[in-house]
Write a structure and sequence with these properties.
Length: 380
Amino acid sequence: MAKKTTIRLRNPFVYQGYVSPNYFCDRVVETEELIGNLRNGRNTVLISPRRIGKTGLIKNAFYKLNEIEKDAICIYVDIFSTKNQQEFVKLLGTAITQDVLSRGQKAIKRLLEFFGSWRPVFGQDPYTGTPTVSISIEPSQSAVTLKSIFDYLTLSKHEVYIAIDEFQQITKYPETGIEALLRSYIQFAPNVHFVFSGSKRHLMTQIFNSSDRPFYQSTVSMGLEPLHEEVYYDFVHRFFEAKKGSFSQEMFHEVYQRFNGVTRSIQLILNKLYETEKNVCSEVQINEAILHIVNQSSMQYEELMNIITDNQQALMKAIAKEGRVVSPQGDEFIKRYNLPSASSVKTALDVLLDKDLVFRTQAGYIVYDHFFAVWLNRLY
């Protein structure tokens, strides 16, 4: 693995990516459970809504795995943007090649000898200066290449840990049999261990809990809940105290409740407050930070509204006004917001759920992006 360097951030509240355990809040039990599963050959399904912290948990577990097993290969890929088997295989192959770049010339030479058809193109990130790579895979060769990837990893003499995020995306691929193909290679790769994470519970449940699907009874399951408020507050207070400031527990409770404990949204607010405030003690400060974030995203929200239908827009606005809706097809809700028929509302709701613009919680339907909900409430 590449040598880790100690990174000190100007702003400790990271809302994108993962830096190190120093800037990662809690998840001690979940991290230990995930590491225990992987090191003992238990492939793991991790299911939770987006923005709660699945990616951070996986990368924190991989960071600590690399401390325990110095030569372990840890690969993370997010397949949300992939549309077919070829794109999936290319993304996985690129991630493996990127890992090899950090292991020296000997490893690179071995990979190029093994995958003579990949034709990798090496480059450099113009902003960070770090080496980059892209590979080429023929669509007709994707299944053969996938087998070659597993052969390569099995023969690597390393323990390999692979996390495939938004794994439910494979159900949208036009090719049939991708689940069976993956399962057939995984069961004969004893040194390759997997985390399959996803945000669409019903699709992930179908893949792994249906007796007629290839992955049935092949994994253990983990869920992920929002961070405990008290633990999260201690984390926040420590960083503000370190710069000789403070963060009122009452104000943190306000932020936590308003954003339902959603980690990414809260981290973004904390990031802004840490930049602008020394002592956070009033709701005015909180609201100013939220409005700053909303205004920065207004163009993106306008574009989102332009690509959905009038019925979908009307339903989005109504859910944002309510905050949380238990029965969006109910007569009372439809009449209150002058929505079309219940069947039209259902059609619109299904699209908004599929696009992750609306999310169903145990307490009802909400606008997925809390800042989007604020924007909708202010403008409509």
